[in-house]
Amino acid sequence: MSGGGVGGYNSIPSGRIIAADEDVNDMEVKAAEEIEELIAKKETKDQVTSLSLTWSVTCPLLTQPLQRMCSSFMALFLLFLLLIIYHIKQKLKMSERDYSELETNHQFSVLSVPRIHLDVEGIPTVTSDEQVKVESTIEHLLENFLENHELDSTLPLLSRLQIVDFVKHGLSRLSTSYECLDASRTWVCYWNLHSLELLEASIPDETKEAVISFLNLCQSPTGGFGGGPFQYSHLAPTYAAVNALVILQSDVAYKIIDRPNLYHFLMSCRNEDGAFALHVGGEVDVRGTYCAVVVAKLTGIADQKLFSGTSEWILKCQTYEGGFAGTPNQEAHGGYTFCALAALTLLGQESKCNIRCLLRWASNRQMKFEGGFQGRTNKLVDGCYSFWQGALFPLLHFHLAKSDQYSEALDVERWLFNQEALQEYLLVCCQHPFGGLLDKPGRPRDFYHTCYGLSGLSIAQHVNGVVSGRTSVVGSPNNELALTHPVYNLGVNAVMRALNYFNSKPLRT
Amino acid sequence: MAGEESKEPLSDSSDECSDQEPTWIYYRDRPEWNDVVPVELNEGPFPVVSIAYSERFKDIFNYFRAIVLKNEISERAFELTSDALELNPANYTVWQYRRTVLKGLEKNIQKELSFVRRIIEDHPKNYQVWHHRRVLVEWSGDPSSELRLTEIVLAQDAKNYHAWQHRQWVLDTFKLFDHELEFVERLLEDDIRNNSAWNQRYFVVKQTSGFSEDIISRELTFSVNSIKKVCNNESAWNYLRGVLAHYTTGLNGHPVVEELCQFLDENNSESPYYFAFLVDRMEELMQSDASKRQVLLPKADGILQVLATKMDPIRREYWLFLSRYLNSQFAN
């Protein structure tokens, strides 16, 4: 039997491999049961995470069925192990070499870029201690992944079915611990509908009707939506509700939006200087501005009176670092930077900010070990920033493509960040064994991180220039998600349909 | 951010029922509330994001909705909001209504400051509590506890965004900058990588002395000394660049910066931030002086290739973009 390269597998009689696959399924079931028992015994989440990722390597060595197989399969399996050891050594060497020779548009079957640890330089601080801890956890997961990959080159796999189940369940019922989100229920609708949209999972008509009725109950007679029925209107749940309705792609959904009163609500949140409070008597920050601009643009009610001075106010939020803060003088932060750039783009004013500085800051937010994004300089990676920071790149690309100065230098097939490393972080480190995504290993799954993790994954997979583009999907081709619009974070078809519907119906106030 | 505001629960399982406190009486069983008809949530037959509320939660919010509907401004309404906020401090409707009641009853602001302080201690990343605190300080005009409060919160989490935001608002509104630079320096001594502290430093300088030539020199020296100790600290490099943005000749020419580059060259520094800085310096020179382009362009390009392939490969696309850009601008 030949020992070199992946081609060596070809000489293993396929009959044996099929038998092994069947037993792999049994082992899957057994492993899942073992995991559930562990959780019932309240083992730590870390153990569960690492277990679920390493089961495919350890189970063949531990479970009963294998012992019942014929001895010749055992011999083949031992050869298997030798090949694994050889390949891991090869792959680790490979990860160190220059990647300029590799093509850029196909599934990367191994880590796409060498990972570089933080150099503490002999001066440890709280910041570096935290960072080192995270890098250590990620390192173990990436090592496990490389081993697993030897057995299954279609890894990493996005657990679509499990995510759909998790999210569909969350769209209908939530446990008592969700009382803390009682003022954000429209958000939970949006997060889960958007996840289903990205996964291209169908939403039954009764669910759509139920969502429409529920959101209607959240709408205030004076305009805008609250986080739940009988709550005051607030720009964030308003944004979430409008987005959720847009995802449903139906006139019935669009019609429930009381546009005239929505306009009045937006005006009631508006300050003289063009900034927006999140609700009447509420705090002012760039989220308010983003929510107001998006909602107005989507429903075709934006006008000069609403947004005069708004872009000037947003521009004051750009910091010396290049990113944007929630309010002027505060620290540059991924979530607020997204809100700022997306709002400026919708207002047609994105060229007024310092794009070079913003680009440098955004680029520096990708973590050179983990591959995911951090929210602020010297803070930790978090799966949700895959979208907040990741979406900056299509927006920056769009702007740079329009400028005489920079358009030539753009690569129409790549965003200006490492798309594969981001996908690897999300798929290898941010998936919960039972479905759903998370911030970082060791954290619990939730609908917010599932939504924004998937949104970031979609952005990392698809580059859409004006003329051409390129898709780059890490792992199984089934990992490919639907396109998301980088300004709204909605499916592009959903956006177009809504814009067409509302813009053909100008508001008469 | 939505994520912080919408902190999802840690587990999907029900919390231990808190209805078993011996002194707790449901509002529906309180005779002094007999006159109020509770308003139940009726969301129709098909559950959508439907929360399995505890009995206590339902009871309290049924009565809260009733109070809001009749616009009752009273002591009992005020107490009810306290109960509601204990169950969900993120409910902005309850906070807003509570403010209406506070104003209507002309209640004591100091007591209310203590109330919200306790909730801030338990929920330091909640938007509503900090906003409420700010409104109270606006009403009272008294910022005397605010620097201490934010200092305490920052002692537990030196990067808490809300705490910094509140602190900046207090400093700026009441002009309390006297000791802020000291405060920032202490934090930077604790953790030189604390980007929030660096950001605060910029804020203090900007709002007090401004970036005059003397101050620029002082701030550059501060950053350079920091970089010499920890070369791969992006916070210090970002600050350095931020200060230089106020300097007339930009990244080139300031003696403190020239000395830093010399120092780093002599020590064979391999910091990607330094290399990126060198490229930007060259770009500036090529921009202002065409005769330098022939020499500098290949140098800048060389550094970008090293960054892309060896020193900082995760940012490969960005380094190659810069390379293509510089070539398009400055090549013959």
TrEMBL record, chain A:
Homology family: Belongs to the protein prenyltransferase subunit beta family.
Gene Ontology terms for molecular function: protein farnesyltransferase activity; zinc ion binding
SUPFAM superfamilies listed in its UniProt record: Terpenoid cyclases/Protein prenyltransferases (SSF48239)
Requisite cofactors: Zn(2+)
Subunit record text: Heterodimer of FNTA and FNTB.
Protein's name in the database: Protein farnesyltransferase subunit beta
Keywords of the record: Lipid metabolism, Membrane, Metal-binding, Phosphoprotein, Prenyltransferase, Repeat, Transferase, Transmembrane, Transmembrane helix, Zinc
GO BP terms in the entry: lipid metabolic process; prenylation
Cofactor remark from the record: Binds 1 zinc ion per subunit.
InterPro entries, per the entry: FTB, PGGT1B-like, Prenyltrans, Terpenoid_cyclase/PrenylTrfase
Transmembrane segments: 71-88
Its biological purpose: Essential subunit of the farnesyltransferase complex. Catalyzes the transfer of a farnesyl moiety from farnesyl diphosphate to a cysteine at the fourth position from the C-terminus of several proteins having the C-terminal sequence Cys-aliphatic-aliphatic-X. Catalyzes the transfer of a farnesyl moiety from farnesyl diphosphate to a cysteine at the fourth position from the C-terminus of several proteins. The beta subunit is responsible for peptide-binding.
Residue ranges occupied by any Prenyltransferase alpha-alpha toroid domain in the UniProt entry: 159-490
Organism, scientific name: Daphnia magna
Catalysed reaction equations from the record: L-cysteinyl-[protein] + (2E,6E)-farnesyl diphosphate = S-(2E,6E)-farnesyl-L-cysteinyl-[protein] + diphosphate
Assigned GO CC terms: protein farnesyltransferase complex
UniProtKB/TrEMBL annotation, chain B:
Keywords, in A-Z order: Magnesium, Prenyltransferase, Repeat, Transferase
Family matches, as InterPro entries: Prenyl_trans_a (IPR002088)
Protein's UniProt keywords contain Repeat: yes
Keyword Transferase: yes
Cofactors named for this entry: Mg(2+)
Enzyme class: transferase
Top-level taxon of the source organism: Eukaryota
Pfam entry (one): PPTA
Molecular-function annotations in GO: CAAX-protein geranylgeranyltransferase activity; protein farnesyltransferase activity
The protein's Enzyme Commission number: 2.5.1.58, 2.5.1.59
Cellular component, GO, one term: CAAX-protein geranylgeranyltransferase complex
UniProt family annotation: Belongs to the protein prenyltransferase subunit alpha family.
Protein name listed in UniProt: Protein farnesyltransferase/geranylgeranyltransferase type-1 subunit alpha
Species: Daphnia magna
